[in-house]
Design goal:
With 223 residues, this protein is of the alpha/beta class. The chain has 6 helices and 11 strands.
Length: 223
């Protein structure tokens, strides 16, 4: 039985609070599946106050300043259980947490990551921005054929158990890119970071982005 995708918009929510709420959805979906009931598929949109997160295999060396300094400038630093290395979240960056049962959609983890990236690529195309995949790196990038210009606009990092997912993707919409100078984003030292605002040279309506992303998610993950 296929569960409807429920959309929840949490607005600006501290990362640790959002993590606990997301884990509650994840644990509930897993419990239902283990009990033979259909897991509820939930798509969460939110933003986070300034925070740096390290994934399961994240290297502390990719954090370029110590935690005392980060606290002084209002940036949290947290370990998390997603895949990937290190990333920054902040206001103006849209974060999407799909808590999905992939078996309901008939896909595996590799296809799931592909579709998360495709969500962003289709969204950007609607704004006249050409998003692409980069060999050997997750997420969505621009100018992948030019090593001197290649830059990341969206990060992807997930966790799964019995094909129930948590974490997901972040998209730089109007985020202050200066904060990425605090880290080696995703562990890379030779690739830049960008945002929709920077590429379009104008502020972008976050509500418009959410509305478009919702439709694209529903298109790529048909119920």
């Amino acid at each position: 039985m296929l569960s409807e995708i429920i959309l929840e918009d949490w607005g600006l929510t501290p990362y640790s609070v959002a993590f606990e709420r997301q884990k509650g959805l994840f644990d509930s979906a897993l419990e239902r599946k283990n009990s033979g009931l259909p897991a509820v598929n939930t798509l969460v949109f939110c933003e986070h106050p300034h925070v740096i997160t390290l994934g399961k295999h994240g290297k502390a060396a990719n954090m370029l300043f110590d935690e005392a300094y980060l606290r002084d400038i209002g940036v949290e630093c947290l370990r998390t259980n997603r895949g990937g290395d290190i990333t920054y979240h902040g206001p103006g960056q849209l974060v999407c947490y799909p808590v999905f049962d992939l078996e309901q959609f008939g896909i595996g983890l590799k296809e799931y990551v592909f579709r998360l990236e495709e969500v962003v690529i289709l969204l950007l195309d609607g704004y006249g921005i050409k998003g692409e995949r980069l060999n050997g790196a997750s997420g969505v990038w621009l100018d992948t054929d030019n090593p001197a210009k290649v830059r990341k606009i969206s990060a992807v990092g997930i966790k799964s158990s019995r094909y129930i997912t948590m974490h997901g993707l972040s998209l730089n919409v109007n985020v202050d890119l200066e904060y990425f100078n605090l880290i080696n984003p995703c562990g890379f030292t030779d690739r830049g970071v960008t945002s929709m605002e920077k590429e379009l040279r104008t502020s972008v309506s976050l509500e418009d982005v959410k509305a478009r992303l919702k439709e694209i998610f529903y298109f790529l993950f048909p119920r």
